[in-house]
Design a protein that fits this description.
This is DNA repair protein RecN. May be involved in recombinational repair of damaged DNA. Keywords: ATP-binding, Coiled coil, DNA damage, DNA repair, Nucleotide-binding. This protein is α/β, with parallel strands linked by helices. It is 57% helix and 17% strand. The chain has 18 helices and 15 strands. A six-stranded antiparallel sheet has the order 2-1-4-5-6-7, covered by helices on one side. It has a six-stranded mixed sheet with strand order 8-12-13-3-14-15, sandwiched between helices. A hairpin with a 2-residue loop joins β9 (399-411) and β10. α4 (140-151) crosses α12 (326-392), α5 runs antiparallel to α12 (326-392) and α11 runs parallel beside α12 (326-392).
Length: 566
Amino acid sequence: MLEEVRIRGLGVIDDAVLELSPGLTVVTGETGAGKTMVVTGLGLLFGGRADPQRVRPGSDRASVEGRLTVPTRGRVADRVAEAGGELDEDVLILTRTVSAEGRSRATLGGRSAPVSVLSYLADDLIAVHGQSDQHRLLRPERQRAALDRYAGEPLARALRSYTGAYRRHREVTASLEELTAQARERAQEADLLRFGVEEIAAAEPVSGEDAELLAEESRLAHADSLRMAATTAHEALTGDPAAEVQADVVGLLAAARQALTAVREHDTSLAAVTDRLDEASYVISDAATELASYAESVEADPARLAAVQERRAQLAQLSRKYGETTDDVLAWAEDAAKRLAELEGDDERIEGLHAEEAELREQLTGLADELTELRGRASEDFGAAVTEELTALAMPHARVSVKLTTGEDFGPHGRDDVEVLLAPHPSAPPLPLNKGASGGELSRVMLAIEVVFAGADPVPTFVFDEVDAGVGGKAAVEIGRRLARLARSSQVIVVTHLPQVAAFADAHLVVEKSSEGIVTESGVTRQDRDGRTRELSRMLAGLEDSELGRAHAEELLTIASADREA
């Protein structure tokens, strides 16, 4: 709720503070005293249009500061945090300034914020009903939401079911659209992958095969050189059996060993050398044996060499496309096979999504029809209730109805567009609220709607300006009674010139201009019982101290008090 509003430099208001209370607060005063500037200031505070002409002459700017109590958890607190502002425990400070040049600034919880944020918060904090203000319930989406809450739990339950099905339907539809739009790309990708997998499978590469083939090709390509080198090395180690004189390594080592063996016992250091020659002789003999075996195994095989080179060329072609080595090619084929399975599975997925979409559409159709039926019933009850309220508010011939337009497409809340219509007299066609009523009538229609919606469309604070325009007598009493009824569940602030309305207030503020023609801080006063009696007497008879007027005022206060307590 609003706890306090400070207005500076706005119209006739120089500097005034309004201390507000729960329940019904009325603001009264002489004509031109600045009562309407209170409503204008509240409109500014919650994102209304900044009109530099409203800046009081002689002031460089107009400013409005509001102090509100709000829940520390909820949409309002979340929005404040998103905008960078802070709550002081459960208190939110809003400010709005308008310069004489037309520049407008806003702060939210101590931080500068776009004016649009104030407008957004207004939907959850306040409903201002005045002839020059934007009306919350004039927006179709608000009318639909309020009607849904008015319809109660049956519609809320159906709407929850619908919302879940609608959300899933959107997900399925989006997936279908994405898969269908990418069908060509997926088919092309699948063809490329399938070709690669089949090409690799046909070649049947083996891990490490490319390195083995390279080694084999090198051996086959140099078979003659390898055999000759092995033979020459073997002969150098063991000698040529055909030669008459042996000059081989093994023979020379044997001669050296024989010479040393004869004298090794005479010097231990020479014995160690002899042992090393023995080891060398064994190693050379083994090497010679291996060389002989190798020379016999090396054969020139042109056919095998051609086969190896052909196989290497085949693997090289795969490597150019799918990886540097055979192992890389095999890894690519494994990944491609997995991806190909995914792509080929999309067709089954699309088929499954089509089936689910059809099932969800059928489900949505049934739920949307149920919402339409429930809204239709609630609309009839709502129209009758508001029409009854208007009869008591001096609009006996007016008729309110709700137009439901059911479309083909599913929306977040069903297929229905909701519009509240007003026919001000029997011969007038039903028209949207902002076209079917004058300014004063519209305020009364809004009051009737808010009273009917009270509790179903909970807004913490309602502000009414000129809700009693053009009425008096019994109708004025009924307006006061309904404002008091609305104030049982919300904070209600009313600017009024009717004593019958003011008598129902829980708190009464009087706005008075000073001798200089401006409203100062001392010009807004909260009235006690005696002060209220004087103010109501002035409003009734134009004379504060008229005994007849005071008696009538006391009677009004007594009747209103008894009515509120009933």
